[in-house]
Amino acid sequence: MPAPRTVLLTGAAGGVGAMLRDLLPGYGHTLRLLDMRPVEGEPDAITADLADRAALREAVRGVDAVIHLAGIALEAPFEKILAANIAGAFHLYEAAREEGVRRIVFASSNHAVGHTPVPRDGAPLIPVGAPHRPDTFYGLSKCFGEDLAQLYWDRHGLETVSVRIGSCCPAPVDVRMLSLWLSPADCARLFHAALTAERVGHTVVYGSSANTRLWWDLTSARALGYEPQDDAEVYAPALLAAHGEPDPTDEAQARLGGSFVTDPPLWPY
Fold first, then answer.
1. Is 185 exposed, middle or buried (0-12, 13-18, 19+ CB in 10 A)?
2. Burial annotation 48-58 (CB, 10 A radius, 16+ → b, else e)
3. What are phi and psi for residue 61, nearest 5 degrees?
4. Which of 138, 152, 206, 235 is flagged as catalytic?
5. How do 65-68 and 167-168 pair as beta strands?
6. Cβ partners under 8 Å of residue 77, min gap 6
7. Per-residue pLDDT tens for 39-88?
8. For residue 181, how many C-alpha atoms fall within 13 Å in the half-sphere facing its CB?
9. What is the distance between the alpha carbons of residues 166 and 108, in angstroms, rounded to a whole number?
10. Domains of the chain (ranges plus CATH)?
11. How far is CA 175 from CA 30, 180, 208, 215, 246, in A?
12. What single string gives the DSSP state of each residue in 208-246?
């Protein structure tokens, strides 16, 4: 696939959206921005809800690819998750299909497999083929998004890379993030690889940096051409001094989803 020149970025006003707005143009991509709220400093950004199917179709018209970040990024009542993350993803895929867009990069999440036990004592890294084990309605919506992507590849030939993002932020803030951290620079490297790799079909990848304490297998991400450069371990001494080593008997620390596996989920995450 030739390097896309115009990419629709949904959820452009969010945290990950702001990082990609800053970094992806350096890889040669021209971004068209969309969010349900105005994007600060971007007067040309499209303000539209994912429920507005006409606006979505106009937004995707003429783009080479879509990065779909939009939706609710934390746990919420099911009705809200249903409207924003599940119906919203369907509306986005339908608009892309109708306008002939050939590739979507879908922001999935570690919470699609959040009840998976974290590897301990030399156990194998968690593979991308691990079965869906969502920890919340939010995680459930990411399972739906991955399955929707598979359907649209099998039925319509619309390619997707589903990125199960770990913790994408400037620096890890707790011990769990030492295993799941995705630096802003590595986030841009990964999304660029997902946009430009050839013949991806529907590919699921884990999204994290090359962390010393990594829990999951980055093989499928590396196969796209992703070469992570950062490692959360530089933050480990301070975080371990502040919080201590994880307690393996604590359910929230023994599962990939962290505090999302509790009922109700604990915040922040």
1. middle
2. bbbebbebbbe
3. -60, 120
4. 138
5. unpaired
6. 137
7. 999 999 999 999 999 999 999 999 999 999 999 999 999 999 999 999 99
8. 26
9. 9
10. 6-261 (3.40.50.720)
11. 36, 10, 15, 13, 7
12. ----TT--B--HHHHHTT------GGGGHHHHHHHH-S-
Active-site residue, 152 included: no
In degrees and rounded to multiples of 5, residue 190 shows phi and psi of: -70, -45
230 in Cβ contact with 185 (< 8 Å): yes
pLDDT tens string 187-233? 999 999 999 999 999 999 999 999 999 999 999 999 999 999 999 99
What tokens appear for 53 in the block? 């199917």
| Mean pLDDT of all residues belonging to the chain | 95
Tokens of 17: 């959206």
Instruction: Read off the pLDDT of residues 120-168 as tens digits, 9 standing for 90 and up.
Output: 888 999 999 999 999 999 999 999 999 999 999 999 999 999 999 999 9
By residue count, the chain amounts to 269
